[in-house]
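chain below, 256 aa
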Amino acid sequence: MPHGSCALALFVKAPTAGTSKTRIVPPLTLAEAAQLSICFLRDTSDIIAAVASNDSVRAVAVYTPIGAESVFDGLLSDSFSLVPQRGESFGDKLSYAVQDLLAMGYESLCLINSDSPTLPPELLAKAVAALSRAGDRVVIGAAEDGGYYLIGLKQPHPQLFEEIEWSTANVLSQTIERAGEIGLDVEVLPSWFDVDDAETLGRLCGEMFGRNARPTQDDNMRAYHAPFTRAYLSRLIESEGRERIWPNGNSGPDEH
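prediction:
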């Protein structure tokens, strides 16, 4: 690996009906949720590929299940390498992914979820820049639901993934608490939102098709346009009306 290389690692499972984005069923069907998951994967991987455009930053997909490698053909750009997940619990999978990527020769890494298709690429660039500075630290992209959309490290710190109440609003605060217990510097990136239920699906539609753009904490930071997700949601809304997936919307795609 080049000196100072950073892995931008998309943490993902193969999208299949019945296992993907099930918290958005309803209003979506199982098949629609799986298709939306594919769109999220394509958009998020494009965000990563845009930032990982030089030898010092590499695109990786840390995937599950083993044996599903062919599923990602055509969903990820050729710049991505595949690394299988291992471990039983979610915390173990994250911790092992950190260990595995560092063992491959990367000097730092970011584990990134695939639930934020409009995540500004600037946030990934900020994470890479923070990890390039001298000194050990953890970089955390705060999700608005109390979790995180990204965690970046330079050394394996398994304590960060122990005794965490995963899938709750306590994930971010407990992770920062663990970092304090081991004396690890913490850098928190501007917050963004995950799309994991009907409410946040409606918010995503509002961000894409509503009259008012989502404000950000940084005037130079704009939501990624997420073309795959936008096109798919637009087709659903135009074919069936917005009431099913975006009942509180203030405009349709053709009005934006």
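The chain has one domain: 6-195. The CA atoms of residues 138 and 153 lie 5 Å apart.
thats it, cya
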